[in-house]
Amino acid sequence: MAVIIVKAVYEVARIIGGYRQELELTGPATVADVLELLIVRYGRELADKLPGDNHALRQTLIFVNGRNIAGLDGWQTVLHDGDELFIMTPLGGG
User: What's the CA gap between 30 and 23, in Å, rounded?
Assistant: First the structure.
């Protein structure tokens, strides 16, 4: 079992009910797996704020343990027990 700490700000934090939560996973998971789990749990409103099926970033920044996933293995970055996944969406439109 692995516990992943999910942190978010702005709209994502509002949707998931706060800045921080812990997810218990039964096995190995990637960033993509965790995002899909969050979308299943919180529905369409969250899906609209996160990357879509084609994983287009939509100006969303995602970090694992303080490192942008773009510099890691992207969506396939494997998460381990105690890892922190931080989701930051834009504050406003442009």
Answer: 13
